[in-house]
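retry 2 of 3: previous attempt timed out while embedding 3-isopropylmalic acid. Reduced batch size to 1 and resubmitted. Inputs unchanged:
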Amino acid sequence: MNYKITLLPGDGIGTEIMESAVQILNAIEKKYDVTFQYKEELFGGASLDNHGIPLTDETIQTCFDSDAVLLGAVGGYQWESLEHHLKPEAGLLKLRKSLELFCNIRPAKVYQGLLDGSSLKKEVLAGTDFVVFRELTGGIYFGEPRGLDENSGWNTMKYSKSEVERIARLAFDTAKTRKKQLMSVDKANVLECSQYWRQVVQEVHKDYPDVTLQNIYVDNAAMQIVRDPKQFDVLLTSNLFGDILSDIAGMITGSLGMLPSASLGEKYALYEPVHGSAPDIAGQNKANPIAMIASVAMMLEHSFKMNDAAKNIETAIEKTLENGYRTADIFADGSNLVSTTEMTGKILANMK
Ligand code: IPM
Ligand code: MG
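retry 2 succeeded.
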């Protein structure tokens, strides 16, 4: 098979971790019956500096023409004071919307080797393995009306039936293959939007009688993730709540630098680390490439159905951590501090 992949390294550490991703893909090509064809495009601040906007139509077209998109990270201090629609983040939102990537999957799995690295207690964390399904193209991120004037700022949180239904189905499908438990997170005690969300999720549940559905308020969910993360298996939630909960989930795994994600739509798919562009350490070969490398594994599994290859990468990451190698973000006493390129090299060696 031959697959076309669009590479969007973006800004900050994005370019460094994208190099790691390509090295991993080169190793996959050697080991499995597959070839990858890349097209790289500017995105975010890098695109702003060259084209005046964070996402050009050409870049969107390249994404349309490919089998999957790999994204590094966007953003940086120098673009923070720009008008809202020019910010690198606006480019990311436009990309998600243009590719109709309504389903964002963010797995939160604790690596055995990192149990000591989290700010939470080992016994609370051990065995944690859940996945967040975050709605990505609706809700308050995109609702109209929205605006800002001298006296106020406003946004609209709104969900339609089809928007809730399609992501609920994907979350239930995954729940079926795991522990058959789905928790839908909302704020139905206050928001009509959440009441409607809950109603639609309950309707979809009728098609999945073997899955247990629980509804939970988002404030309680945030508390429970930190108190007892093992109780969760599949979490389903809206755009804003998912943004917040997935960062919390990231920390329980030791570092945001560990968390991959997949953003799926009917036609397109994009894979990116959950962390940002980390401008403070950019260009210093210090970034943790694991979230990016794990995002490559998610791409192989979801877009190309190469489950063995995905497993090969995941096992190599686990082994490398067990061998004691750590980038600065997950460094602990007694471990072996490595750079971005060294960590990538260790993972490559463990893929053999
Ligand atoms: C994320 C990020 C983005 C979001 C930002 C960069 C727009 O925080 O992917 O979680 O809010 O969705
Ligand atoms: Mg976020």
